[in-house]
Amino acid sequence: MGFLRRTRKAVPAPAPVPAPAPDPEWPPAYLVLDALGRKCPIPIIMVAERIREVPVGEVIAVKADDVAARTDIPAWCRMKSQDFVREEPLLHGWAFHIRRNY
Question: Which of the residues are catalytic?
Answer without folding.
Answer: 40
